[in-house]
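Summary for the steering committee. The consortium agreed at its last meeting that each partner would contribute one worked example illustrating the joint modelling workflow. Our contribution is presented below. We chose a case with several input lines so that the handling of multiple components could be demonstrated. No manual editing was applied between input and output; the record is shown as generated.
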Amino acid sequence: MNIIALMEHVVIIGNGISGITTARHIRKNSNKKITVISGETEHFFSRTALMYIYMGHMKFEHTKPYEDWFWKKNRIDLIKGFVKNIDTQKNALEFNDGNIIKYDKLILAVGSKPNKFGWPGQDLKAVQGLYSYQDLESMEKYSSTTKRAVIVGGGLIGVEMAEMFLSRGIEVTFLVREDRFWGGVLPKKEGELISRHIKKHHVDLRFETELQEIIGDENGRAKSIITKSGEVIECQFVGLTAGVSPNIDFIKESNIETNRGILVNKFLETNVPNIYALGDCAEFHKHPTGRKNLEQVWYTGRMMGETLAQTICDNKTPYKPGMWFNSAKFFDIEYQTYGSVFSELKENEAEFYWEHKKGEICLHLVYDKSSNALLGINTFGIRMRHEVCERWINGKKDMNHIMEHLKDANFDPEFYKQYENQIVDQYNQENRTSLKSKKRDWKRIFAKN
Amino acid sequence: MKLIKNIGLILCIIGFAFFVGSIFVGNYTVTQQTFDEWINNKGIKSELFIEKANQEIVGKSFNAFQLSSKLITLAEKSAEAHQDNIELWQTEGNQDDKINAEWSKVIWTSWSSTHKDFTYPLLKASVNSPVKTNQWLAFFLTFGLAIIGGLLYIVPDFILMGPAGIKNNALFQHTATNRGIGGIITAAFFVVFYFLLYFFPDLIINPILTTNKISLSLSGNPASQWFMYGLIYCSVMTVFAVKMYVKYRNNLYQVIRTTVVLFFQVAFAFLIPELLVRFNQPWYDFKNAWPLNYTFFFDWNIDSLLDSGHLGMFMLVWGIVLTVIVIPVMVYFLGKRWYCSWVCGCGGLAETLGDPYRHLSNKTLKVWKFERYIIHLVLVFAVVMTGATLYSYFSGSETILGIKTYTIQSWYGFWIGSIFAGVIGTGFYPILGNRAWCRFGCPLAAYLGLVQRFKSRFRITTNGGQCISCGNCSTYCEMGIDVRAYAQKGLNIVRSSCVGCGVCAAVCPRGVLKLENAPEEGRILENPILIGKDDVSLNMKHEN
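What follows is the complete predicted structure of the assembly.
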């Protein structure tokens, strides 16, 4: 008898961080047959590194976190192809080329696609977002004939695209709807700090400017854009980077319930038994810890994958992400965030903000007004130690404790100038305290809790 | 700015052109007096050779290649004739004295070891060239132009590359840094250079002479090929250190490390030894530790140190203390980086000239396995060779287990000291990356690595769950460590080969990595739980 045939067949659509993390963890904990399907690339690669391929920092092969033999060795079957249709009655998937495979459990990790908000001309040539490997190829194709690019949407991908074009000497006009860069996420001062830095790199950064229309040339390629205020900007490329939305068009015809994304409960189960969804494409009915129902970042994809693998391997586990964290790099300035720092303070919140006199380094702490407990940290140009920040925030440490132990959290490379004393001085002045910054202490840093 | 850069490039190329071109200028005329002195100094006893050479060489004019090959051909022919005689007499029997006398006339020539010692002094003494008569000018036209040009090419990047921050733009698109034609030509140039330096210095008398004035003013001796090499080494490191300052100016760790490693090269490997010679002391590099410094226990070195009074004795003791005590203790507290990327000369070149090639190292598991075999084999070879040397030194026996100690030393010197460390290690920077020698061949690195892996406070800490698997760290690891494989699992990086250059942490866009010396407990995590998800225990079984 064929033992393989007896084993449960788990099919995962999507080989991004969510799908692959799930596959790896299922393999760690079981002998199930695992198949991963992707139409994008044969092997898993790090989407976040696409920009580095364009800039010549890496080749595609360097963005693959596992060598090509890894999949066979770990008995993870890979299929390159697009799924056209999911037959939830027969537990079968139909591919574009007509092939059909059966599954026992189906995991949807199909990711996102760049938002297009119905702008006239949005489907012209050289008008695109940056999400997939194919987007990168297309950017590459148009670059040699692009003198100026217009980027629409002031977020993480937009600034990456700007950096990419500038590395090839292509001029960039960057349209941002808000009055500062990434205004929906960053508080005002941080937004201004990073806006200054973007301008320092000679990006033509336009605030409170929105796209009206993209005009094409006789070959159907973008040749200029018109802003809402009527200004015409000539360009040969338009980058659409106003966020992403779940890539679920082919699922909408099935009986899997969707809203903006595929709707899931805290176990990442869809309405159909044995079908799960996670990562960028999954939308919670109600987020398990009260955050946004749709969180499209690398880390949540990974954590969901770790969790879902447990459930698939008969250890039913709810998704319980810990403290929120994220990071990014805007040209030369790194950003990290831990806990909750919103663009505007909430009613119960107070803040402390320190900025270096040169205006490229800052620390922003948000805390509870009544208890003084730390709620969130934003830093620009200072690296923080994840474990320590998590211990502070989850442990509801008060601001006095934070200020005294700030040095424990510094994760900058050795010999970097440290600013804790300055920071604590400013805090003392503003709050009429006389706290002293304690020396870094390994015992505290590595304490179990 | 672009203009300055281009002028710099042109000046630099002209400097190199003069340097290479000087090989082909002038002629070599052997006078009777030079010839007799050379015969005398070399102790050449073959009347066949002397007579022929007198006829065919003395008073005539050659280029370097002609003269060198003529000498070798004559030597080989005379050696054959003598050996024929010996064979003949051996069959006749009972002529031991005659045979022994004939043996002493045989001139041994082998390109890999003895060749250069034979021809080099005669060629050096016989050269007539504009370089010889205008040594300061020659120095300016070669070293001077190349250095000035190089700096003019590099410094404008301070402005051109924009605000401070590491820009590895186009490294994988440029022919010189992506194993393209540019890289292959550079590698070929390096390889030819090393072959000439190690095995045919008689062909580069003029390039050596360009550094003669500097040598005279430092040690008081005329320049040898090793002096020229030392000066090139220091110049190249200085120019490329400036490049490091421009590129990594946002990162104080890199700036300080570059300064320190440059200082150790210029002061300890170049100036101090030359000045020691000026004061009639042995040439000694205080930071060059055995077994990288594999000749340390050779009889001639020990004898020379023992003959040099208190200072010589101090040098001998220091050399031993450095390897046995200083190195392991420092590695315990700081990791092997204190040596490999802060002090060592090989490391110094790799971290300056080699920086633009660091991404070319191979990161596959297969090559990591190969690395672990070969580097430890070289360490064993170094230990065995040194053991044999010391056995011979103390016992007076020339052989050990039937093998000549000198033969073992020659093998090591040729295959490891010259081919591996020089020709492959540096020559292949543009192909294999900048640490091929340090990663696969350096016995000292192997020793430091064993200490670092098993008993050290050093590690690269992974910052919780912030890794996005982008691969910058692995790509820019010159030692070919797949840093990301650890970071994305939340594991600290503890690897014997890590030289602590700090570039993985510098290029990480998310602040995930930090080089740290911290308590040993918890240094190697077997079962990390990625942060950000509270109650799933992960990594029950390790994938491999």
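Chain B has a mean pLDDT of 93. Residues 457-544 of chain B form a domain with the Alpha-Beta Plaits fold (CATH 3.30.70.20).
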